[in-house]
From TrEMBL:
Residues 21-131, 138-245, 257-359 form the C-type lectin domain. It comes from Merluccius polli (Benguela hake). This is C-type mannose receptor 2. Gene3D superfamilies: Mannose-Binding Protein A, subunit A. Keywords: Disulfide bond, Receptor. InterPro entries: C-type_lectin-like (IPR001304), C-type_lectin-like/link_sf (IPR016186), C-type_lectin_CS (IPR018378), CTDL_fold (IPR016187). PROSITE patterns: C_TYPE_LECTIN_1 (PS00615), C_TYPE_LECTIN_2 (PS50041).
């Protein structure tokens, strides 16, 4: 019987298939419904019809229907109040229309088998794709830096400066704002963007805003968050604490071999966690403290044939990460692990059965 030490998702449930290949999950629903009925179903069973913010999201939704022969599937875009909007009411700043579309004969949007979009009659009955949980977390950095330096710090030690896609994200980030400082940097800016506000993470246009009254005032290019969660624009050279996108991960309290852990994470989440640097290993330590084994598997593996260690997400391995007490004589047949109460690395036999930590997103 599986035992989870944290929140988890399932691969198959109620006729749906969950694909979590990045920080936003999508559920492919193999039921035929009109656009409105599909919207109602997604809102009742998941969160909403699929929102697609960039090409990465588009590829994920397309991947979610890989095993389907359906030519058309509903996504959450529709024409309402004189504009194309997503079902969650956010503006559409990204599109992937088929040539000649939209022809404005119809108000609902379907995805074709090649990932391009077409406007279709809302009454047609199609399979559809729902938004799942968006796995996003944040980490507060209590060091004052310019926006650009904060961006570099987050990219080197975490993922990127904070991306905030909706009010749920905003409240999460606001809770991390635990400083006596009045303002903290987030990842929104309009540096060299022809006036468009874009996120640092993927240069996508912002479709959600939480501006303070009177903001933005139009003469500053970077965005800070107030303690109440509202935003204002600020000079990018101002030195402030900041919030980074963190690495969502989950501890699985099931005793498995290293290969079984990799298989489980890839089937149910994203992958076994790769903890390349001290910041990531500190996060792993926080999650691992509830483990039921003294060590936990991570995404580090040794190949005897090529005689080197590698992270399974293809990042380079730095040899000085080993714990001083680790036996370094013979690594064949071993993989990487961490103590539940430490941040250094150990080699353990591949057949040893340990708890393990899965990443929920690409790191």
């Amino acid at each position: 019987m599986e035992e989870f030490c944290g929140k988890s998702g399932a691969m198959k449930k109620n006729g749906t298939m969950l694909f979590s290949m990045g920080c936003r999950d999508y559920h492919y629903i193999n039921m035929n419904k009109s656009w409105q009925d599909a919207q109602s179903y997604c809102r009742e069973h998941h969160s909403d019809l699929a929102t697609i913010s960039n090409m990465r999201d588009n590829n994920r939704t397309l991947e979610s229907k890989t095993n389907s022969a359906e030519k058309y599937v509903w996504i959450g875009l529709n024409y309402t109040q004189g504009a194309w909007r997503w079902s969650d009411s956010s503006n559409a700043s990204f599109n992937n229309w088929k040539n000649g579309e939209p022809n404005r004969n119809n108000n609902c949007v379907e995805m074709l088998s090649d990932g391009r979009w077409n406007d279709g009659g809302c009454h047609h009955k199609r399979h559809f794709i729902c938004n799942g949980e968006e796995h996003r977390d944040y980490h507060y950095i209590n060091e004052k830096m310019s926006w650009q330096d904060a961006q570099s710090y987050c990219r080197n030690n975490y993922s990127d400066l904070a991306t905030i896609s909706n009010m749920t994200d905003n409240k999460k980030a606001q809770k991390k704002h635990n400083s006596t400082e009045k303002y903290v940097w987030i990842g929104l800016n309009n540096n060299n963007t022809q006036g468009a506000w874009r996120w640092s993470e993927d240069s996508s246009d912002a479709s959600f805003y939480n501006w303070n009254k009177g903001e933005p005032n139009g003469n500053r290019d970077c965005v800070e968050m107030r303690p109440d969660g509202c935003w204002k624009d600020e000079k990018c050279t101002t030195k402030l604490p900041f919030i980074c996108n963190d690495f969502p991960m989950i501890l699985i309290c099931e005793n498995t071999t290293w290969e079984e852990a990799v298989e489980y994470c890839r089937e149910n989440h994203h992958d076994l966690i790769s903890a390349h640097n001290v910041s990531m290993r500190e996060r792993v330590q926080d999650v691992a403290e509830n483990a039921t084994t003294p060590y936990v598997w991570i995404g580090l593996h040794y190949t005897c044939v090529l005689d080197f260690w590698f992270w399974i997400d293809n990042e380079d391995f730095i040899e000085d990460s080993w714990d001083p007490d680790n036996d370094k004589r013979d690594f064949c047949g071993t993989s990487g692990a961490m103590k539940k109460n430490g941040t250094t690395l150990f080699s353990r036999s591949n057949t040893e059965k340990l708890n393990f930590i899965c990443s929920l997103c690409e790191t």
